[in-house]
Design a protein that fits this description.
Blueprint lengths: L5 E7 L7 H17 L4 E3 L17 H17 L7 E9 L3 E9 L2 E7 L23 E4 L2 E7 L9 H7 L4 E6 L7 H16 L2 E6 L1 E4 L2 E4 L3 E3 L5 E4 L6 E7 L2 H8 L3 H4 L11 E3 L27 H19 L5 E4 L4 H14 L4 E5 L7 H14 L2 E4 L3 H15 L6 H22 L2 E2 L5 H6 L10
Parallel strand pairs: 1-2, 2-3, 6-15, 7-8, 8-9, 16-17, 16-19, 17-18
Antiparallel strand pairs: 1-14, 3-4, 4-5, 6-7, 9-12, 10-11, 12-13
Helix pairs in contact: 1-2, 7-8, 10-11
């Protein structure tokens, strides 16, 4: 126990799957920022080195080896920040591979934690790739017992966090790659508060941020004290560095008043929960912001329900475009709600200068739809082009007459228009390079009210 606060930096960073060089640079920058802020510990997200989820990259031994090479580079660089301990997610290996957290200090790999609970439901497929961990080490950092675990491990009431708490951990660092869905933040917050209060520990929950394919990570990293009270929260849907001063002595005081721990008989073997010392450092020479125990920490306001959904759409769209190697986007504008909302999201994600709107009216298009599209582009300040499709549509119907006959083609004609528009957008994309953003919505996809190779391409 240390009567002085433990300063922890939560580096809520946006990493990219497979970009080992870029991720390593981002992690190193976060380490340097945390060190400059006087932190004792900096936490980086789950699998931050590899990016999350790395999926079939994990089946390539060369990728796993390269990820370990980058970890060794971080270990080497940590020599220049001797008072800082870094906790970072990576892929570990022996005879198998593990979703792991490295604990680094002063040029040494002090210890490694292997994730125990490997989710295999919903969007998760970790059991396919990883071996489960068995041990739950505690690290003695600045005279504070600190337990490290990963994401899913904290969701289980009797998991490694409980083992660490009963073995003496006063602070739990839980690093995450926890994807967003509407309403998850409240559920997550209630769970973390319960874990902190039930185990009488300070819970430091770090989440990554950013979009990766169909997943969006919302950030919103949080810290709860041993009473289960929220004491700090980072921004949602953007990178952030949350600096928190933890009163670890309050954990001991709280436990003295809680008889439940004395009644419980959870046996924790020392082999299962080893205590690993991190070499003591002299912090007196460092410039540190003056800390007052119990001082208010930064708590970012929580977004409203619709605001967070919109922020997730903007972040997911922007990262999908950029991480796929594109810079600009092209959108077919009908003047309707779906294409309007898509364009607004694209502008917020990429900037108006990187969005091109195309109006493709046919003989069935109303004057109002054309003027609405024109008004939209003026309001958004995006590039705009009109390419009428009536001539192409009539020529296509004529070409198809031998197959379709001379009667009313009905629904086929409606779908033909959508496919002509899809061809135009993809041809412009093919030539000029912007990615096409489709404008269908989930209700249309679910009911089949959309056109294959058209607006659902």
């Amino acid at each position: 126990m240390n009567i002085l606060p433990l300063r922890v930096a939560l580096a809520q960073v946006n990493v990219t799957v497979g970009d080992l060089e870029g991720n390593t640079n981002k992690i190193l920058t976060a380490m340097q920022q945390a060190y400059a802020a006087g932190a004792h510990i900096v936490c980086l997200p789950e699998l931050a080195l590899a990016g999350y989820p790395p999926e079939d990259l994990l089946l390539k031994p060369g990728f796993v080896a390269a990820n370990l090479g980058k970890l060794h580079h971080l270990v080497s660089e940590s020599r220049h920040m001797p008072e800082l301990t870094t906790v970072v997610g990576f892929v570990d290996r022996d005879h198998d591979i593990y979703n792991a957290a490295a604990v680094i200090n002063a040029g040494k790999l002090v210890g490694i934690y292997h994730k125990h609970y490997l989710p295999n439901y919903g969007v998760f497929d970790e059991n396919r790739y990883f071996q489960a961990g068995r041990k739950a080490p505690i690290f003695m950092i600045n005279d504070v017992h600190v337990g490290v675990n990963i994401c899913e491990d904290i969701w289980y009431p009797s998991g490694p966090m409980t083992m660490q708490a009963h073995a003496g951990a006063e602070v739990i660092l839980n690093i995450n790659g926890s994807p967003y869905y509407a309403g998850k933040g409240t559920f997550r917050e209630e769970m973390l508060a319960t874990r902190a209060a039930d185990n009488g520990v300070i819970v430091v929950y770090l989440n990554m941020v950013g979009g990766q394919d169909e997943l969006v990570f919302d950030g919103g990293s949080m810290v709860f004290n041993e009473q289960g009270t929220l004491i700090a929260r980072a921004k949602q849907f953007e990178e952030d560095m949350l600096i928190v001063d933890l009163d670890s002595a309050s954990v001991f005081r709280s436990r003295l008043h809680d008889p439940r721990r004395r009644q419980e008989r959870l046996h924790v073997a020392s082999d299962d929960v080893p205590i690993i010392p991190v070499a003591a450092r002299d912090y007196s020479s460092r410039e540190r912001t003056h800390v007052i125990l119990g001082a208010p920490q930064r708590i970012e306001p929580k977004m409203e329900y619709l605001a967070e959904i919109y922020a997730a759409l903007v972040l997911g769209t922007g990262d999908y475009v950029r991480k796929s190697g594109f810079k600009k986007a092209i959108i077919g504008l009908s003047g309707g709600i779906d294409s309007t909302l898509t364009a607004v999201i694209a502008v917020d994600a990429l900037g108006a200068e990187n969005v091109l709107g195309i109006s493709m009216p046919s003989g069935y298009s109303s004057e109002g739809s054309k003027t609405d599209a024109q008004l939209l582009v003026e309001n958004l300040g995006i590039q705009f082009m009109t390419i009428p499709i009536e001539e192409t549509f009539r020529a296509s119907l004529k070409m198809l007459e031998p197959a379709l006959g001379e009667g009313d083609p009905g629904l086929a004609a409606e779908n033909l228009q959508a496919r002509i528009r899809g061809n135009i957008l993809m041809t412009i994309s093919n030539k000029l390079g912007p990615i096409v953003l489709t404008t269908g919505n989930k209700s249309e996809m679910a009911t089949g009210y959309s056109t294959l190779y058209g607006d659902m391409a």
